[in-house]
Design brief:
Length: 302
């Protein structure tokens, strides 16, 4: 498994496992622990979380599984996110739906994540979504405290466009911090980050891309979605040519981009992880890459 350097302290596996859906798997800590070992055995060592996943429950589910094999902590990288507040009766501060990028909320959220995950530090902390009220000074102060306390080893954002990234990063670099990651929705179904220049802008600054919902959350396999059908017709013929599954071709498509895109898988079926992994060794031609791209656009490129 290739590795991607995030900063001088942190590197990620090229393929990442996401835990957004972990509450719906209804696994015992033993079952999740077994899955973690299967992932690590395959070189998938980076685990993606957020405070809010599963009504604030997924980090705790993961933490219980990790407790069964404490030695795993040194073999994996844990990413978590903060900044979204969702209504929940679990916590006192979750009394509405809003974004909160205040210093107090960021630090409070990270402390809770560490406790739920049963770890001392996050390999990376991401601001989950940009906010119209975002004050880069507050985020910088929170981050400085978290880095100084050894609780966060690298820092990134998610769903940030170019100007939102610039606003925050220009403040951070004054304090010798900087954004190393942008986690974006990216798949053959969702091309926005290519079309609006976000990916180019990140590449210019050596900000690594994590692609969330690389299979469009399973929508690509939906029989009653015309756009998905159009894309999958092209992907299926390539799957036949290369003798792999369609998800393998999708991974090969993401992997072809020069900016070292890291897909964040959402499956909990290890055979599907294996299908995706095979695709990382497939080298699509430029024409094949564009055939998928234009199938998604629904028209030819100019
Ligand atoms: N930053 C953000 O705003 C944001 C937003 C959403 C997600 N994320 C992150 O991205 C991760 C992945 O998102 P996602 O779950 O939507 O990813 P995905 O890999 O695009 O979709 C996974 C879903 O597709 C299903 N699926 C159906 N057919 C499949 C096949 N042939 N191969 C693999 N999966 C298939 C899976 O079910 P099975 O489990 O049964 O295989 C699962 O429910 C999340 O866990 C989270 O960490 C981030």
């Amino acid at each position: 498994m290739d590795r991607v350097t995030i900063n001088q302290h942190v590197s990620f596996s090229k393929m990442i496992q996401g835990f957004w859906r972990a509450h719906s798997w209804e696994w015992s800590p033993q079952q999740l622990n077994k899955y973690l070992h299967e992932l690590v055995d395959r070189g998938i060592t980076t685990m993606d979380h957020a405070d809010i996943y599963g009504d604030y429950s997924c980090e705790g589910i993961f933490g219980e599984a990790l407790k069964l094999s404490p030695e795993l902590r040194d073999k994996i990288e844990i990413v978590s996110k903060c900044g979204i507040v969702l209504p929940s009766d679990k916590l006192t501060w979750t009394n509405g739906h809003r974004y909160d990028h205040s210093q107090q909320h960021i630090e409070q959220s990270v402390n809770r994540s560490l406790s739920e995950l049963n770890v001392d530090y996050l390999d990376s902390l991401l601001i989950h979504r940009p906010s119209p009220l975002m004050d880069p000074n507050e985020i910088t102060e929170a981050l400085k405290n978290l880095v100084t306390a050894g609780k966060v080893k690298s820092f990134g954002v998610s769903n940030f466009n170019k100007s939102q990234y610039d606003l925050l990063n220009n403040h951070l670099v004054c304090d010798k911090l900087h954004i190393t990651l942008n986690q974006l929705e990216l798949s053959p179904y969702t091309l926005d980050a290519f079309e609006d220049g976000t990916i180019n802008h990140m590449y210019k600054d050596d900000v690594k891309i994590m692609a969330w919902s690389p299979l469009a959350g399973g929508k690509l396999f939906s029989a009653d979605d015309a756009k998905a059908q159009r894309i999958m017709t092209t992907i299926e013929s390539l799957a036949q040519k290369y003798q792999v599954t369609t998800s393998g071709i999708i991974m090969a498509w993401l992997n072809k981009h020069p900016s070292q895109v890291m897909p964040v898988l959402g499956t909990h079926q290890i055979n599907r992880v294996d299908d995706a992994l095979v695709g990382m060794n497939i080298k699509l031609t430029d024409q094949e890459w564009f055939d998928i791209y234009t199938a998604s656009l629904g028209h030819d490129i100019p």
